[in-house]
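Q: Could you fold this chain for me?
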Amino acid sequence: MRDLSYYKLSLTDFLQKSHPNLIDEAFINARAALAVETYEDAIKNGYNHIEAGEQASQVLFDGLHFSKFDTLVNILQNEFSGIVPEEKIKELVMKLLPECEEVFSKYPLFDDFDYESAFNNLYTELTGTVAIYLDHHAI
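A: Sure. Below is the predicted structure, expressed as structure tokens.
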């Protein structure tokens, strides 16, 4: 059986990689507790450990599969690789996130949004916003 610390560590690791701007102890604790509860309920309802673990993971990562952070990292790597050094990308993305929030707010972001045709429009708009930011800040 997986315990609270397993889910806390899993979520923390994921957030550090794809949502560093969302790292919050209360959020992590609440999601991990919900994952444990989901796992235990699934076992009580006759699911095996693998199925219970899958249900708990769905709850743990719900709404987090699409990442604004990862999207901006990809844009910088794909469109501005000759301008922004790889070692500076994550630091720059943390500065870009608030600057790009207006663009993100135009789209109904959900877990599989990056597979939608509207993702291409978002990507294009963000690329323009990033280009303006880089030009304005002489990067």
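A (continued): Residues 4-61 form a domain with the Helicase, Ruva Protein; domain 3 fold (CATH 1.10.8.330).
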